[in-house]
Design brief:
With 191 residues, this protein is an alpha+beta fold. Helix content is 52%, strand content 12%. The protein has one domain.
């Protein structure tokens, strides 16, 4: 692990400690039928009457920090000697990692919300829109199922693009070599 990777891991640990110190809370009101609505981030060891910890959102935050830490470690790895000539390795794979990290952070900054009056027991709830997480969301509830789906789709697409953009190893056949091999096999079968 090089110095840059150690710094990335240190930043990730600091972020995890900050998330643990100021977790997200929901406000539970009797006027709203005990429906929890997102209230904000409060100190973990403070007194918070009528508020419950939003474990779904906290878990998503932790997952995104850990994934971004893994992405940072991959982006900051020392390139092999053969890749050093190519400006630090496969730039397409590094671009995919960077875009995945940016998308995950934006998803947590602007999560899907719905108004507490529109809450249903449907498998996939409706949502009113994407709002800034640090804004006034006292009348809204986070729609964590949709947020989970968003995160999963970004991770799946990022992984597929990462694999699609990987460098071919010397023992892999090119498209022309595969065609030539297929023609030789067909010719051998005709004989």
């Amino acid at each position: 692990m090089n110095t840059s990777q150690r710094i990335a891991v240190f930043v990730a640990v600091a972020n995890l400690l900050l998330l643990a110190a100021f977790p997200p809370f929901d406000y539970v009101s009797l006027q709203r039928g005990n429906v929890p609505t997102f209230d904000g981030f409060y100190f973990a060891f403070g007194l918070h009457p009528n508020r419950v910890l939003n474990m779904d959102f906290l878990l998503l935050e932790i997952i995104v920090v850990l994934i971004n830490a893994c992405i940072a470690v991959l982006l900051l790895r020392a390139p092999a000697a053969s890749q050093a000539r190519k400006l630090g390795g496969n730039w397409r794979q590094r671009s995919v990692l960077l875009l995945v990290a940016i998308n995950l952070v934006l998803m947590l900054l602007f999560p899907p919300f719905e108004y507490y009056s529109a809450i249903t027991k449907a498998a996939l709830p409706t949502f009113e829109g994407f709002y800034f997480v640090f804004g006034d969301n006292s009348q809204r509830q986070l729609v964590t199922p949709i947020l989970y789906i968003e995160v999963a789709l970004v991770l799946i697409n990022g992984a597929l693009l990462w694999l699609a953009f990987r460098d071919k190893t010397p023992d892999e056949l090119s498209a022309e070599q595969v065609r030539a091999l297929a023609q030789r096999v067909k010719a051998a079968q005709r004989k």
